[in-house]
């Protein structure tokens, strides 16, 4: 399942280790987990396909393994699923050794680097189901006009509300916020008894939703827009409510991520993705909650999406079979099976109605697909975001304009 969790993690978050956000990819060749002989262990015509995944846990590993086994029985092509402990590192080491897996989970921020050095095959336009993927997900995996790889699933951010605390504060369904002013109002009413109204991670991957709602974003149409007036307005809004005590960063309430702040009821509302459902059922089953779309800001509705694709090695000798396997894994029936097994949202539009019927309490996440932004995916962007996140930690006392100007300069440097 695709997700973005912060560096500090609870036991649940550690189990949800499919976070594949990476910094700059360094191609080193030691301890890759694959054979060190170039080409050996790699699929060649008629050989065994190898897949490397970054799993969120046993449920995901078993579901992918079972699906691949079903395809192998159907196709007659042997395939093996390997689970990485550190997927970005093992993948880069496999390429450096000349023995990458045929297929692998690939994060958007890793795509540009691998595309630039010719390591991955741009097979997206050859997929029979290419027109079924959500357009924003296709954009996420398009570099220089080429659709490289099939999005395997995705997630968006929503507003998670503790319904018991909501009712206790005298709030009803009619009070679910649809604007920033309404969000501030209900957050104030929910801030009581040592509990904050709204919490979220001190990182662009959460705060960036406010930037989108203001009509901003870090990169727009290939141009750096980090220091835009819209982004300043967004950070000013967040800063105001961090200071009045109705909003808080998860770390400031003693939580490793939003899910922990919500589950321990240190926050009545949080901004998180649909992966929170697994954490709640596993660790906080007695906390009742509902999910709403994030409220609109001055620029309209906005949220962020997170995804990975099925990358394919350019040197794979079994590209036709690998593409067939990807079409199987991203089919409507198989994506719905994955969703049932470990919770992701299907990346294809044809699965929308069936997924919504099976998950009525989470449809707000899927609604976000129509207007979601994705984090910048050009080479070097992950490092810029890491620096931006470090500065966001001091937003409560910092200068939003100065913070965004630094991000602007850093993005301009990698876009030159």
From TrEMBL:
Secretion signal, residue range per the UniProt entry: 1-29
GO (cellular component) term, any one: ATP-binding cassette (ABC) transporter complex, substrate-binding subunit-containing
Gene Ontology BP term (one): maltodextrin transmembrane transport
Gene Ontology molecular function, alphabetical: maltose binding
Keywords, sorted A to Z: Signal, Transport
The family this protein is said to belong to: Belongs to the bacterial solute-binding protein 1 family.
Cited PANTHER family: MALTOSE-BINDING PERIPLASMIC PROTEIN (PTHR30061), MALTOSE_MALTODEXTRIN-BINDING PERIPLASMIC PROTEIN (PTHR30061:SF50)
Protein name per the record: ABC transporter substrate-binding protein
Biological source species: Microbacterium testaceum
